[in-house]
Write a structure and sequence with these properties.
Layout (H helix, E strand, L loop, with lengths): L23 H16 L6 E5 L5 H7 L8 E5 L8 H10 L5 H9 L7 E4 L5 H4 L5 E6 L5 H14 E10 L7 H13 L3 E5 L3 E5 L4 H12 L5 E7 L2 E7 L38 H11 L2 H12 L1
Parallel strand pairs: 1-2, 1-4, 2-3, 4-5, 6-9
Antiparallel strand pairs: 5-7, 6-7, 8-9
Helix pairs in contact: 6-7
């Protein structure tokens, strides 16, 4: 159902104005993966985000949604958490998070809201159609048991070849995320494709074709560095770039209009050279001004 545009006075004018963390390196990888999927006529599927905060990455994801596809966002949005530990986490980290703020930010960039599930991410496996999602972004709870559940849900909803992206896989304040991810790599068949400073990219399917395409793409970029090393018996691509050039970002309806191009000042006209008298006029002028003896001599020389 179409929604009207946000009218909040503090509506974001740019994606950078939306509170949250989404660095240029990861914007580039999201863009490469989703654009590659969109260019493949055989690949169809929905988009899913677990944990939305103020909507920064959701706004970015929304621009890759194609006709007939569904974008689903699941977050508590300030609703009561399912257990005491999650209540404490929500209160300390996301005290200002509300569904209304998310929706206002999202509608500043898009005409329609995604499907919003305001509930714990544990409901996703039953609320989202199985094997339907081509891209899943997980940035919800940092607690081990919840991340473990989100990983299992991603396997349920992932379409063949889907890419699963995890945030905060190595941050010191959320070791439960790292434990759950690497546990799934070791025992559950999750395959890591690549890592950046903030996110880990994986798939439940054979990662080799996508890894090969990724390395080919990285080889042509001067703003990113990359390396490959063996981890858990498989190649893992490491990617970084402090000067990464972000892709074209979605435009807010509240963005200031681009200044009109001013007309270039007209170049000053080149000075016009005075008209040169015709030869006959020169002869007449010489005849009138020169002494007769000199004029007769000039005429004689001309006849010769």
């Amino acid at each position: 159902m179409s929604q009207g545009p946000s009218t909040a006075q503090n509506a974001p004018a740019r994606l950078e104005d939306v509170e949250g963390w989404f660095w240029a390196v990861d914007q580039l990888l999201f863009d490469w993966i989703l654009s590659r999927q969109n260019e493949d006529p055989e690949r169809h599927g929905d988009l899913l985000e677990l944990g939305a905060y103020m909507g920064k990455s959701a706004i970015f994801l929304g621009q890759y949604l194609r006709a007939g596809e569904t974008f689903t966002v699941c977050d508590l949005f300030g609703a009561p958490a399912p257990d005491d530990s999650n209540v404490a986490e929500t209160a300390s980290s996301y005290a200002n998070l509300t569904r209304r703020a998310f929706e206002g930010n999202y509608l500043a960039f898009h005409d329609e809201l995604p499907v919003v599930i305001q509930a714990p991410t544990s409901v996703v496996a039953t609320e989202v159609k199985a094997a339907s999602c081509r891209f899943v972004h997980i940035d919800a709870s940092h607690l081990y048991e919840h991340v473990h559940g989100d990983i299992e849900s991603s396997r349920t909803v992932a379409a063949p070849g889907a890419v699963i992206v995890f945030d905060d896989y190595r941050s010191e304040h959320c070791p439960g995320v790292a434990a759950a991810i690497w546990g799934a790599v070791a025992t559950a068949g999750l395959h890591v494709l690549c890592v950046t400073g903030n996110k880990l990219y994986a798939t439940w399917d054979d990662p080799a074709p996508l890894r090969e395409a990724l390395l080919s793409w990285l080889a042509g970029r001067e703003d990113l560095w990359h390396g490959v090393e063996e981890v858990a018996g498989a190649p893992l691509v490491r990617i970084g770039g402090q000067h990464a050039v972000a892709p074209a970002l979605p435009q807010s309806r509240y963005a200031a209009p681009a200044p009109a191009a001013s007309a270039a000042p007209a170049a000053p006209a080149a000075p016009t050279a005075p008209a040169r008298p015709a030869p006959s006029a020169l002869r007449k002028l010489a005849k009138d001004l020169l002494p007769p003896i000199i004029a007769r001599e000039i005429a004689k020389q001309r006849r010769r």
